[in-house]
Amino acid sequence: YFQIAMAGLAALLILQMVVWMHRQGRGLKQELERGAERALTGRNWLGLFFLAAVAVMREGSETVVFLYGLLASASETTLPGTLAAVVAGFAFAAAFYWLIQ
């Protein structure tokens, strides 16, 4: 039950972050665009590239670590259920994305 509670808490924290980003998105987008424009005007495109690359790698690695933890703890008897939970999680994320658009 502890693992279920922790996974639920992690999902709620991610959901809260997504809602916050959706609400704050316009202001953050404008701020990022201004910063990117300044970087490109100053010919600092390499720094901008590395910033974007690191951000994408960080998010991707978090996802891999999270899913690896789930799959590594699954035994042969629980693997189908674990994989179904991963698929359901992605489906829920896609549905939530569609709802906030």
Number of strands: 0
Instruction: Name the beta content range.
Output: under 5%
- Given as residue ranges, the uncertain stretches (5+ residues, pLDDT < 50) are none
Instruction: Provide the domain count.
Output: 1
Question: How does this structure look, described?
Answer:
With 101 residues, the chain is mainly α. The chain has one domain (2-100). The protein has helices at residues 2-41, 45-72, 79-100. The model has no long low-confidence stretch (mean pLDDT 81).
Summed up:
The protein has one domain.
Can you give keywords for this protein?
101 residues; mainly alpha; 3 helices; elongated
Helices and strands, with pairings:
Blueprint: H1 2-41, H2 45-72, H3 79-100
